[in-house]
Design goal:
The protein is α+β, with helices and mostly antiparallel strands and about 300 residues long. It folds into two domains: about 5-180, Regulatory protein AraC (Jelly Rolls, Sandwich), CATH 2.60.120; about 185-299, Homeodomain-like (Arc Repressor Mutant, subunit A, Orthogonal Bundle), CATH 1.10.10. The chain has helices at about 25-30, 100-105, 110-115, 130-145, 150-170, 185-200, 205-215, 215-230, 230-250, 255-260, 265-280, 280-299, and strands at about 5, 20-25, 35-45, 45-55, 55-60, 65-70, 70-75, 80-85, 90-100, 120-125, 180. The radius of gyration is 20 Å and the shape is globular. Helix 4 packs antiparallel against helix 5 (about 150-170), helix 7 packs across helix 8 (about 215-230) and helix 10 crosses helix 11 (about 265-280).
Amino acid sequence: MKAIPTYALYGELAETLPPERLHCESIAERSRLYDWEIEPHRHEAFFQILYINSGSGEAQFEGTRVAIRPPCLITIPPLAVHGFRFSRNIRGTVITIVEKYLDAILAAAPQLQSRLALPQLHRLKARSAEAVRAAQLFETIVGEFGGNAAWRSAALHASLALALILAARSQAAADPGITAPANRKMLHLQRFRALLDRDYRTHKSVAFYAGKLGITPTQLNRVCRELLGKSALGAISARLLLEAERDLVYTFIGVKEIALSLGFSDAGYFSRFFSKHKRCTPTQFRQQAQRQLNRENAG
């Protein structure tokens, strides 16, 4: 069987988004590079929401094919296999959100998480109040993302929350759209990642997580390799690295304190662990990230 690739953004194997960030672009901007066809793939830690206001095409969710008839919203959670074929006149926007930023956006309404746990196409009635609202929200998001007005982050946060609520509410409409079926491997992985979010600071073993899931370590490794392209131990290390990156980019906490907060016995061990996976020291990573953020803020 052909392996399903896992990307940051489609076609980019290296993660290009800093922690806690989002990316916004037109659907045509990337799909024209691939002759208007995005082959089935998945994103490990990114949630995507697409708004399509004209054109046509076909979406593929976990093997289920769905016709795209604008206006519509498409929501795709992390790890869900999805692909698209678009017409050349497609018009719309795709927003890629780091999963933990999504958690922050939906913190006031955690029940929405379950509504968005599977890939879905949410159909909107043309010229309906919901369709007009969706168009306004995505126009606002695109404008704020490309601008530098005061309180830009707050405006993006609020607009994204409203867009996700609009998508979730559409499930109760007369034409709710299409939801992809869940599968056992995906459910195992979702539970593993929830456990990992809870316990990653205590450096639990692969056997510990497998036991909690009621499967063997070999089965857990197989699931991780198939869906994430890495071993279960690799997923554990990646979760530690993600938190380390956040602390290095968004706080002024010293490297020693970060190491201790992440369960490392000393800063030297943490630095070796970080350098092995990121090919730079924690201090170098912090300096590089700060220069990047300064360039973005200056732009």
